[in-house]
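Figure 6 in text form: structure in, sequence out.
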């Protein structure tokens, strides 16, 4: 009788241990599932919701600029708050990824010398876009790339939260303005926050890039594409753009250039993709 009792007690202990282990596994599975749902929601917010917000706000800004130009008004400087948290991607050249703020290459002047609107502004040849430089972080121009169906505002500066995360293209301080001799250099997100430059890798030689400023249109023609360079290759935004990493990539003669920079590969900030265009005479 004693032996039977002893066997029953031992079996119950084993079942108790198995039950405790099963409960532990269940709790662990619940935690993993909850974490997965949270991560999925964050991804949806970052990839989809921030895009939707930024695109809507950017298009509204384009409309406001065009209405102001039609009425002969100067663009308003108020831009509103950033649509969301800063993205990890950083398309700026001359800046450590994720550092934020203005890159070293853009703090001082560089050394040395969409579809189109239904009614295009007057064409403009070489020459400054305006007598006065726009205020920092102010949207003052509209970039159009007919091949990509891209229409996006251009703001002064390349700060992530104040400019790029709004879905704008950011103008590198110290580089030329539209129509000027030199390099009108822009940065834009390739993924998240409007991702205006997501498909610039599809641009080919001969494609047109249009820049509207206060009712004047500057037409640039794509000449060269640098598919990959480092984030510190500041030569790509120099007045005469030429890679310091790949010396054979770029130009050697002064001219009126436009440069688009963004991250590559997609969803990373490891390298930079560069598109160069020249002002159409």
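Output sequence:
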């Amino acid at each position: 009788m004693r032996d039977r009792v002893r066997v029953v007690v031992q079996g119950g202990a084993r079942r108790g241990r198995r039950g405790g282990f099963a409960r532990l596994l269940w709790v662990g599975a619940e935690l993993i599932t909850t974490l997965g749902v949270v991560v999925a929601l964050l991804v949806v917010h970052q990839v989809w919701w921030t895009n939707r917000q930024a695109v809507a706000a950017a298009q509204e800004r384009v409309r406001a600029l065009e209405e102001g130009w039609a009425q002969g008004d100067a663009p308003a400087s108020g831009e509103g708050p950033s649509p969301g948290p800063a993205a990890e991607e950083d398309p700026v050249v001359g800046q450590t990824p994720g550092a934020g703020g203005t890159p070293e290459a853009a703090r001082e002047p560089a050394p040395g010398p969409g579809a189109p609107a239904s009614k295009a502004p007057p064409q403009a040849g070489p020459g400054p876009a305006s007598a006065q430089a726009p205020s920092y972080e102010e949207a003052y121009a509209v970039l159009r790339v007919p091949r990509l169906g891209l229409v996006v505002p251009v703001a002064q500066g390349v700060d992530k939260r104040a400019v790029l995360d709004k879905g704008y293209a950011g103008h590198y301080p110290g580089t030329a303005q539209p129509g000027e001799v030199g390099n009108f250099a822009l940065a834009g997100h390739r993924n998240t926050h409007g991702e205006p430059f997501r498909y610039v890798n599809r641009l080919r030689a001969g494609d047109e890039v249009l820049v509207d400023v206060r009712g004047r249109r500057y037409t640039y023609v794509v000449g060269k594409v640098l598919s990959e360079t480092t984030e510190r290759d500041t030569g790509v935004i120099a007045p005469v753009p030429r890679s310091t990493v790949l010396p054979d990539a770029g130009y050697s003669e002064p001219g009126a250039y436009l440069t688009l920079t963004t991250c590559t590969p997609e969803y990373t900030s490891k390298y930079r993709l560069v598109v160069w265009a020249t002002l159409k005479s």
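Caption detail: The domain at 47-279 is CATH 2.40.260.10 (Sortase; Chain: A;).
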